[in-house]
Design brief:
CATH architecture of the domain at 1-26 and 341-495: Alpha-Beta Horseshoe
CATH class of the domain at 1-26 and 341-495: Alpha Beta
Structural class: alpha/beta
Shape: flat
Oligomer: single chain
Largest sheet: 20 strands, mixed
Length: about 500
C-alpha cells in the first residue's frame, strides 16, 4: 500500500542534514521508478545512499548504516566503488574498474539518482523529476550496469534509437520513460525484456493507438502508467485483455469516460486505478463502482461530487486519494464508514473541514490520514482520539494551532506527523513529548518554532527526521539536533 502522505508519492525534496561538523549534500538516491509491490514476490530490501556523506537509508526512509555485503571476499561492492569515485582520490582510482568509473562519473554529472541493494549492488538509476533529465547517452551508460533493475528517465533527448538500447538490460523490472520520443516500433522492442513488470509511458506524444495493442502483448506487465497520453477510448478498451494488470494509471487521459470504464471493469486482477481530469464525472465513478476487486483509488481534479462517491460504497477500498475534487465535501465523505478495510486516506486541496472525522472510529485498520491544504481546524481533531491505531497524520497547511496539538499528543502510536505551515509554536510542540513512537516530523514554515523546542525534539526517543525550513531556529540550535535535522540552511550562512 502506498504511503499516505502525498509528499512521499511525489518527487522527494532536496535534503540537507545539518550536523555540528558536517553539512550534508544533495541526496542522490531517489527511487529509480515509482515503486509498487512485485506481483510475484516482495522486492528485496534496498538502501538509498547519500553518496557525498556515506549515509545510507532503508527504503522506508529509516536511517541505516551503508549497505553491508553478505560476503566481502569478492572485493569492494559497487556501492563502495561509487563512494571512492565521489571522493575523487587518486589512490582510489587505481582500485576502480575504468569502465565503471566512466559510467558513474557521467551519470553523476547528469545528476542521476542511484539506488543500491543491501549487498551494495547498483540496481537503480533515476534521471527524471525535478532538475533531472537525460537522453540517449545516459541510456547507453545505464544499460552497461550489470544489475540494473529500475530505470527512470525523462526528456525529449530520448529517441526511439536510444530506447532500443534498453533491450540489453535483461534484469530490468521497472522502467519509466517520461516525456520522451518513444514511438510504436521502439515500444515493441521492449517486449523482449524478460523481467519487466512495471512500465511508465507518461506523456509519450509519438505513440499511436497501435501502442496499446503492443502493450497487450507484453507478457509480464502488472503495473502500467499511461498518464497524460491521448489514446482513443477504443484503443484503451483493449487494455481489458491484459489479465495480469494490477495497477492502471489513466490520469489526464482525455478519452476516459463512463463507457470505457464500464468495459475495463471486467479486469478481475486490477486492484489499483488512478484517474484525473474534468472528464471524470459522477457517471465515471458509477462505472468505477463496478470494479469489484479494486482496493486503491486515486481521483484528481475531477468534477465528481458526493453522488459519484456514494457509488463506491460497496468497494473494499484500502487506500483512497482525492486531490482537488471540489464538489466533494464533508457530507459526502461520511461514506468512509462503509470502507471497513480502509488503511490510508489522503485528501489534498479539498473543501473539507474534518466533520467526517466522526466516522473514522468505525475503521479499525485505518493507519494513515492526510488532509493537507484543507480547512481542517482544531475543532475536528477530537474525533481522531478514537483512532488510536493511527501511525501517520498529515495536517500541513491546515488551520491547526497549538490547541489542537493537545489532542494529537494522545495519538501515542503516531510515527509520522506533518504540521508544516500551520500555526504551531514552541508551546504546542511541547505537548508532543509523549509521542514516543514518532520517527518523522515536519514543522517547517512555522515561525513560532524556536530553539526552545530543541530539547523536546531531542527527547523523542525514536525521532529520525525533523524538517525545519522556515522556522525561527538558529544554526546553532539546528546543529544540536545532529543528523536528524533536515533544513536547506547551510552552516556558515547568515539567517
Amino acid at each position: 500500500m502506498q504511503a499516505a502522505f502525498l509528499k512521499r508519492l511525489s518527487c522527494r525534496r532536496l535534503l540537507r542534514a545539518v550536523a555540528a561538523t558536517v553539512a550534508a549534500g544533495l541526496l542522490l538516491a531517489l527511487p529509480a521508478c515509482r515503486r509498487g509491490e512485485s506481483p510475484e514476490k516482495n522486492p528485496p530490501p534496498t538502501a538509498r545512499a547519500d553518496l557525498r556523506t556515506g549515509v545510507a537509508q532503508q527504503s522506508g526512509d529509516e536511517p541505516a548504516p551503508p549497505p553491508v555485503r553478505a560476503s566481502q571476499a569478492q572485493g569492494p561492492s559497487e556501492y563502495e566503488l561509487v563512494q571512492r569515485i565521489i571522493r575523487e582520490s587518486s589512490t582510489d582510482d587505481e582500485k576502480i574498474p575504468a569502465e565503471f568509473a566512466v559510467i558513474i562519473r557521467r551519470l553523476l554529472a547528469a545528476q542521476a539518482g542511484l539506488e543500491f541493494d543491501l549487498d551494495g549492488r547498483l540496481i537503480g538509476v533515476d534521471l527524471a523529476g525535478e532538475r533531472r533529465s537525460g537522453g540517449d547517452e545516459e541510456i547507453s551508460l545505464a544499460v552497461r550496469l550489470p544489475h540494473l533493475k529500475r530505470f527512470r528517465i525523462a526528456g525529449f533527448g530520448v529517441t526511439p534509437e536510444g530506447v532500443k538500447h534498453l533491450v540489453t538490460a535483461n534484469h530490468l523490472e521497472e522502467l519509466a520513460l517520461e516525456n520522451t520520443q518513444i514511438d510504436d516500433a521502439a515500444l515493441e522492442s521492449l517486449k523482449t525484456l524478460p523481467r519487466l513488470w512495471s512500465l511508465n509511458l507518461r506523456r509519450s506524444v509519438k505513440l499511436s493507438d497501435r501502442a496499446v495493442e503492443i502493450l497487450v502483448e507484453f507478457p509480464r506487465l502488472t503495473h502500467l502508467y499511461l498518464l497524460e497520453n491521448q489514446f482513443s477510448a477504443g484503443a484503451l478498451a483493449k487494455l481489458a485483455k491484459m489479465d495480469r494488470l494490477r495497477l492502471l494509471d489513466l490520469r489526464s487521459c482525455g478519452a476516459v469516460n463512463a463507457e470505457l470504464l464500464n468495459q475495463l471493469s471486467s479486469m478481475e486482477r486490477l486492484v489499483a486505478l488512478r484517474l484525473r481530469g474534468y472528464n471524470v464525472d459522477d457517471e465515471c465513478l458509477r462505472a468505477v463502482g463496478k470494479f469489484s476487486h479494486l482496493t486503491s483509488l486515486t481521483l484528481e481534479e475531477s468534477p465528481a461530487g458526493n453522488a459519484g462517491l456514494a457509488a463506491l460504497e460497496r468497494l473494499g477500498l484500502e487506500s483512497v486519494t482525492l486531490f482537488r475534487c471540489n464538489a466533494i465535501n464533508d457530507a459526502g465523505l461520511r461514506i468512509v464508514s462503509s470502507w471497513k478495510t480502509l488503511r490510508s486516506l489522503v485528501l489534498r486541496d479539498m473543501a473539507v473541514r474534518g466533520e467526517f472525522f466522526a466516522e473514522l472510529a468505525t475503521l479499525p485498520q485505518l493507519r494513515s490520514i492526510s488532509v493537507i491544504q484543507t480547512m481542517v481546524s482544531d475543532e475536528a481533531l477530537p474525533h481522531l482520539v478514537a483512532c488510536q491505531q493511527l501511525e501517520e497524520l498529515g495536517l500541513g497547511q491546515t488551520l491547526v494551532t497549538d490547541h489542537g496539538l493537545e489532542v494529537i499528543s494522545r495519538l501515542v502510536n503516531l510515527k509520522r506527523l506533518d504540521l508544516s505551515q500551520t500555526s504551531v509554536s514552541d508551546e504546542g510542540l511541547a505537548r508532543l513529548a509523549n509521542l514516543k513512537e514518532l520517527e518523522w516530523l515536519d514543522i517547517s514554515g512555522n515561525l513560532g518554532i524556536t530553539d526552545a523546542s530543541i530539547k523536546v525534539l531531542q527527547d523523542l526517543p525514536k525521532l529520525k527526521e525533523v524538517y525545519l525550513d522556515g522556522t525561527s531556529m538558529t544554526q546553532e540550535g539546528i546543529a544540536q539536533l545532529g543528523p536528524r535535522a533536515r533544513s536547506t540552511l547551510v552552516l556558515g550562512e547568515e539567517r
